[in-house]
Amino acid sequence: MFMKGKKGVILGVANNKSIAYGIAKACAAQGAEIAFTYLNDSLKKRVEPIAAEFGSSDKVYACDVSNPAEIVALRESLEKDMGQIDFIVHSIAFAPKSGLSGRFYDISKEAFDIAMDVSVYSLIEVTRELKPLLSNNSSILTLTYYGGAKYIPNYNLMGVAKAALEMTTKYMAEDLGKDGIRVNAISAGPIKTLAAAGIGEFRFMLKWNEAHAPMKKNVTIDEVGNSGMYLLSDLSSAVTGEIHYVDGGFNIMGMPAVSFDEDGKQTIAWDGNK
Ligand SMILES: NC(=O)c1ccc[n+]([C@@H]2O[C@H](COP(=O)([O-])OP(=O)(O)OC[C@H]3O[C@@H](n4cnc5c(N)ncnc54)[C@H](O)[C@@H]3O)[C@@H](O)[C@H]2O)c1
């Protein structure tokens, strides 16, 4: 039981396809006590049964991270119901649809500000607000994607937000290390979730990743969850500021692998129309 005695809060469960759900499952299986948050009333109905599944019916709180008052209210509720906590999972991102396809240079300032606020600044604000509750052996985890490190078609505005989130992870890791707080990010391969549905040509991303990742497969929320559990537990007690790829190895590829046909002619190993 790697998480026995650990208490924490997971922000970002929308349904049982969410990456945050995979992380909750892995942490609960290792004995963690978990509080959950939901974005709005329609998601509350989805999150409540999930919290119940993990024995946390009494620890479900509203938290729209674009509303600072809701982050303060979350801290007050957690303090009352859990006291000290040992981990925070930030599995939240949002960009207006106009920023997730089309010409990059058309991105509006309004869309840019929203994406940065919800997907990046929220990690700083949630951490600052909840810091008084964090133990001096605690761990914060956020979720990023390869489109924050390299160009990925259509990822556009979210790519810029993820680049900022990854640097935020590193600066926070340095700042909070002296307080016994570790900060890491998992860069997950593409997974079909609610958030992913907003990205243009997402199905093509899935196909491409599966065809070209060294492991020739897409990753699951259980696999991301298990790696997340490692980063939240004492198993990773000397790991901070890391961008940890859980993507079947996709990020190591410089170009697609090639194969040869019977005549020795080089062919690209993937038929995109399959
Ligand atoms: N699915 C993928 O392919 C993939 C890959 C790498 C990284 N990620 C990242 O993983 C994280 C989780 O996404 P997911 O794919 O599990 O999708 P998801 O839709 O299940 O989760 C996204 C969550 O963000 C929450 N959210 C959005 N705006 C919010 C706000 N203002 N306040 C509070 N919560 C808000 C939603 O309610 C939802 O729970 C995101 O940061 C995403 O960018 C996803």
UniProtKB/TrEMBL annotation:
CDD domains per UniProt: ENR_SDR
Ligand binding (substrate): A95
Reactions that this protein is recorded to catalyse: a 2,3-saturated acyl-[ACP] + NAD(+) = a (2E)-enoyl-[ACP] + NADH + H(+)
Any one GO biological process: fatty acid biosynthetic process
Enzyme class (EC, first level): oxidoreductase
Catalytic residues in the record: Y145, Y155
Alphabetic keyword roster: Fatty acid biosynthesis, Fatty acid metabolism, Lipid biosynthesis, Lipid metabolism, NAD, Oxidoreductase
Pfam entry (one): adh_short_C2
Pathway: Lipid metabolism; fatty acid biosynthesis
Lineage top rank: taxon: Bacteria
Enzyme Commission number, as recorded: 1.3.1.9
Listed GO MF terms: enoyl-[acyl-carrier-protein] reductase (NADH) activity
Binding site for NAD(+): G12, S18, I19, D64, V65, I92, K162, I191, K192, T193, L194, A195
Family of this protein: Belongs to the short-chain dehydrogenases/reductases (SDR) family. FabI subfamily.
NCBIfam families: PRK08415.1
Record protein name field: Enoyl-[acyl-carrier-protein] reductase [NADH]
